[in-house]
Amino acid sequence: MEGKIGFFDSGVGGISVLREAVRLLPQEQFVYYGDNANAPYGIKPEREILALTQNAIQSLMANYPLKALVIACNTATSAAAKTLRAQLDIPVVGMEPALKPAHEHRSGGQIIVLATHATLHQEKFHLLMEKYGEGALCVEGTGLVELVEQGIVEGPQAENALHRILDKPLLTPTDSIVLGCTHYPFLINALRRVAGNKIEILDSADGTTRQLKRVLAQHHALKCDGSGSVTLLSSKNDDQTLRLMRRLLALS
Ligand code: DGL
To answer: pLDDT of 138-152, one tens digit each?
Structure first.
C-alpha cells in the first residue's frame, strides 16, 4: 500500500521507537517529525500539548501522504491520541508506559515508573495505575528530556541527573523501572550504572512496534517487498538536530 508511516515526538525521543520499527518492518517507508523547537512537552499544560501535537501532525500530513501514524511520545499520546483518532482517517498508534508487563513480572519489590510530569498527571495514566499500579512509585524524570535533546546520553552529567532523581526511590527494594518517556531509553547505559544490573528496565518500543505491525496487517497496508527508507524532519530544521537524530537512530 502507498504512503509512508509517520512518526511523531516532541523531539528526538521517538527515535527510540522508530529504530525498533525499522528493525521489524525493514521494507516500510518512514517519515519522522520531531517538534524540537517546542520540546519539552512534558512540563506544558495538557491543552497546549494537544494544540502543538495537532499543528505538527497537520504540517506533516500536508507534505507527506501517510498510511498510519505513530505518536511515539507518551506525553502527546495521553493529551492527543483520542482527538487525533477521531479526526484522522488513518490508523493512529500511541504509547503507554509498560506498567502491565512490569506488574506481571513483579516479585514483591517496587516498580518505579519514570515519566514526564504531564504523563503522570493525565487521566490515561491514572486509569493504567488503577489496574496495574500495585507497588508502583511514580517518579518525574525532571531534566532528562532536556539532556537527551542536547545529545547528552551518558557520562557524568547524565549519571548525576539520574542519581538526583533515583537515589532516594532506589533505597526501597525495586524489581523494575518502567521508562514512560521515549527519550529515556537513550540513557540506558547511564541508568544501568546508577541502578545496577539486577533491576529490570522496561520500555514500550517493542510493544508499540508490534502493535503497529498488527494494525497495518488488519488494514492490508503492510509493505512486504522493495526497499525501505527513513526521512528525518524537525521543526527546528537545523543541521545539529538532524545530525543528532541520525546518531540516535544508529545507536542499538
Ligand atoms: N518523548 C516524550 C514522551 O515520551 C517526551 C516528552 C517531553 O517532551 O517532555 O513523553
So the answer is: 999 999 999 999 999
